[in-house]
Each structure stands twice: as structure tokens, then as C-alpha cells.
Write a structure and sequence with these properties.
The chain is about 10% helix and about 40% strand. The chain has five helices and 28 strands. Keywords: Hydrolase, Protease.
């Protein structure tokens, strides 16, 4: 488990307001949204390094995300991250927060933020009659920067569910590239054991108060990485809180309990097998533990495994310089990869394995002249997190992010702690269909 800053404060207990007076409502289905920037390939080194730091790995030498409801989510930067609308305060202020199963704290940028850029939407504490703050200042460290502010409480709602006194961090300073245009912060969806604020995450508080009809959270992510046109924001899928959306998957959800001996903190699974272009890749003993992370763009794996994966792709080459740890392959190649959990092999679309073209052939470029300057090479979606992966207690060897999760319907279940995957409903491999699957 990574070392996180602790808050020396006896936090006030929170009270929960049920979304209805009696009985349970249907699951809440929240649409996801996404945004895009033209510099997504250039940003890949930062994304990769952020993942390494987030999970406590030694970075590479690099230059310097008892009812239920379906909630639309937004796709950020051609599948870089996904966000949903969260309402905070009284009266509520609507904010787009990154939905992150790889962390466990809720924070939002406030109008007191001195380092926030104008494109960041901020929360105004002075306009919320339910906002309470403490004298405790702290910071939460992420791979791509830090969020610093005061430990506070306020009413938090999402899709009809409400926690009347959720502990959160009211942020007044941000370093690095934690959030993108139009975003306001992060909602952590992991377990309390990795909470920097040492409090129950929003979903845990709802479940403990019996507001959820089922102790599950489900995700369908749309794909835009294959789109030529750049987008600033687009429908990104559906986040279902307290249930599943049967219109988004077909067949059974295959639940796999967390590996024996693992303590719920991240959402752990074990990678059973990997195939690349039909070739099986050996997963050594002790190198199978993975974290299923909706807040991570790519797939990270140990050095030797990643090298073997890309060795199975003809013409692939390791990148250098700021792209060290990443690989490129001929853009004309369709990379065919499957990852197995619980004995079932799940395919990853070749579109998700192709993150875009990269310049080659220059004396200072990422390939240092290793290929002809006219060659078209594309960056791959699986990268080397480092040889220290899995070396610490609770540190997974794999980080399985949206590059994989766009290809399955994913369900996170609290009791017993487990993750389930299902095949997407027919047609959902095509961009732009999620809104037709939202309940009326």
C-alpha cells in the first residue's frame, strides 16, 4: 500500500440523507463525459509517469486520474479520463469530477485556489450554507501533482443520492496537471484504507447507510481514441451507482473475488494470462496482482512482461528519452491482445492499443534514428511501469486502466470485495451510442 499523507484531526461524524422516505429506487445511471486535446500523444509521458508515482513505483528517468442510478460520464481528451457531475453544497453547485477507483478521497478546487487556471470550474464555499471547514490543512499527492487545502464537510449528491456531511478537501492550491479543462476535482471510488483523509469515500458512506439497493458500481466507457477529429467534450458512457444497466452488457457478469491475502484498498485482481498476436506471454509467479483503475488511461505492467509483449509484435521498438518505458509499432499493424482474469480471456480492441503516431528518425527523437524517418510508427497502450512493480506490500504489479476497460462492462462489488466483467452489448464498440442506452 502506498504511503499517503494523514490528517491529524478527529473528523466529525457524517449523517446521511436517504434519497427517498421508504423503499429503494431503481439504480442511478450517470452519463459520462469526455474531453480531448490535440496534444494527447505528447502528454503520454506525463500520463505514464503519473501512474508510476500514484502507485508508489520508482519512476523511470523521464522528463518532466438501497437504490441505484445511472449517471452520464464525460470522456476527457480522447479517453484520457472520464468524469461525472457531482453536486456539492446548499444550494448545490454542479462540478465535473474525475471518477477514480484508484484513489479514495473527494476534493474540489475552490474559488480560493491561487494556482487554478481560468478553465478550471471552482466551488464557492461562501455560497453554501452547509459548508463547514476545519483548521486542518493537508495535501493529497497524486502521480501528476498535489491538491492542497483544508479538510471540510458539505452536502454531496450524485444522481439522487446524498451524503449530508461528507468529509472532503476544499482545495486552494494545485500543482502539476491534476485536472483538465472544465473539471473541478476527483471523486475517489476506492476503499477507505487508502484515503488520505482517513474517511469513508462517498460510495462507502452510501452503502453503509443502506441507500444502495446493491453494493456495486458499474461502468461502461465509450471510445474516442480512434477518432480523427479532436474533441473538447463528448458523451463518454454510463456510471451506474447501486446496480447494473442490463442494456449495456450481454450474458453473465463474471465476478472474481479479490486474490487471497489481499486487503481491499485498491480493487485488486490477478492477471491469469496474456496473449499477443496469438502468442502466450509468461506471467511469472508474484507478477500477477493488478489494480483495476478507472482513473488511469493506459495499462502498466512490469518491465520484463512489457518487453515480451512488444517483442511479439513485429517491428515494435522501445522508445527513449521522455517516452522511455513506452513502445511504438508500425501503424499498419493491428495489435491483437487478450488479458485473462479468472480464466476468461478478454480482447482489447486494436484501436485502444494504438494511441497515435509519433515522429521517428531524428537524432534526438524518441527512437534516436532507429527507424527510417519516413516510417509511420504508433505508440502502444501498454507500457513499462518499472522493475520495482509489486515489490512493496499492497503494491500491484499491473495497473489496468481504460485501455482495457473500454472493452468490457465492469462492475465493482463491495461484498464480497470483487470485480466483475461482462461482454458489451452489441453495437457498443462504436463511438457515440451510450445515450440511447440510458433509461427514460
Amino acid at each position: 500500500m502506498i504511503s499517503l499523507p494523514l490528517v491529524a484531526l478527529a473528523l466529525l461524524p457524517y449523517a446521511l440523507a436517504a434519497p427517498q422516505s421508504e423503499g429503494y429506487a431503481d439504480p442511478l445511471h450517470v452519463p459520462l463525459t469526455r474531453r480531448n486535446r490535440a496534444t494527447r500523444v505528447a502528454n503520454l509521458p506525463k500520463i505514464a509517469d503519473a501512474l508510476r508515482v500514484k502507485y508508489g513505483y520508482k519512476p523511470k528517468n523521464l522528463a518532466k486520474r438501497a437504490s441505484s442510478a445511472s449517471i452520464p460520464i464525460t470522456d476527457e481528451e480522447n479517453d484520457s479520463s472520464y468524469s461525472g457531475v457531482v453536486s456539492i453544497g446548499t444550494p448545490p453547485q454542479n462540478l465535473n469530477l474525475v471518477l477514480d477507483t484508484g484513489s479514495s478521497d473527494l476534493w474540489m478546487a475552490t474559488t480560493q485556489c491561487t494556482t487554478c487556471t481560468p478553465d478550471i470550474i471552482t466551488f464557492d464555499p461562501s455560497k453554501s450554507s452547509s459548508f463547514k471547514t476545519s483548521a486542518s490543512n493537508t495535501q493529497i499527492q497524486y502521480g501528476s501533482g498535489n491538491a492542497q487545502g483544508t479538510v471540510s464537510q458539505d452536502t454531496v449528491s450524485m444522481g439522487g443520492f446524498t451524503v449530508s456531511a461528507q468529509t472532503l478537501l476544499a482545495v486552494n492550491s494545485i500543482t502539476g496537471n491534476l485536472i483538465d479543462d472544465g473539471l473541478s476535482g476527483i471523486m475517489g471510488l476506492g476503499f477507505q484504507t487508502i484515503s488520505a483523509l482517513e474517511v469513508a469515500p462517498f460510495w462507502v458512506a452510501l452503502n453503509s447507510a443502506n441507500q444502495l439497493s446493491s453494493p456495486v458500481m458499474s461502468f461502461y466507457f465509450e471510445r474516442y481514441v480512434d477518432q480523427v477529429n479532436e474533441i473538447d467534450a463528448a458523451p463518454g458512457g454510463v456510471f451506474t451507482l447501486g446496480g447494473t444497466n442490463t442494456s449495456l452488457y450481454t450474458g453473465n457478469i463474471e465476478f472474481i473475488n479479490m486474490p487471497s491475502g489481499s486487503t481491499p484498498s485498491y480493487w485488486y485482481q490477478a492477471v491469469d494470462a496474456v496473449t499477443v498476436q496469438g502468442t502466450s506471454i509468461t506471467i511469472p509467479s508474484g507478477s500477477s496482482l493488478s489494480a483495476i483503475d478507472t482513473g488511469t488511461t493506459l495499462i502498466g505492467a512490469p518491465t520484463a512482461i512489457v518487453a515480451n509483449i512488444w517483442n511479439a509484435v513485429p517491428g515494435s521498438q522501445a522508445l527513449t528519452g521522455q517516452y522511455e518505458g513506452m513502445y511504438a509499432f508500425p501503424c499498419t499493424t493491428d495489435v491483437s491482445i487478450t488479458i485473462s482474469f479468472g480464466g476468461t480471456a478478454w480482447s482489447i480492441s486494436s484501436d485502444d492499443m494504438n494511441l497515435g503516431t509519433i515522429s521517428t528518425g531524428s537524432s534526438t527523437g524518441p527512437m534516436s534514428g532507429a527507424v527510417d524517418a519516413t516510417s509511420d510508427m504508433c505508440v502502444g497502450g501498454i507500457f513499462d511501469v518499472g522493475s520495482s512493480m509489486g515489490s512493496g506490500q499492497g503494491v500491484p504489479s499491473w495497473i489496468v486502466g481504460d485501455t482495457f476497460l473500454k472493452n468490457v462492462y465492469t462492475v465493482f462489488r463491495a461484498d464480497p470485495p470483487s470485480v466483475g466483467f461482462a461482454k458489451l452489448a452489441p453495437g457498443l464498440s462504436t463511438t457515440g451510442l451510450c445515450n440511447s442506452f440510458l433509461p427514460s
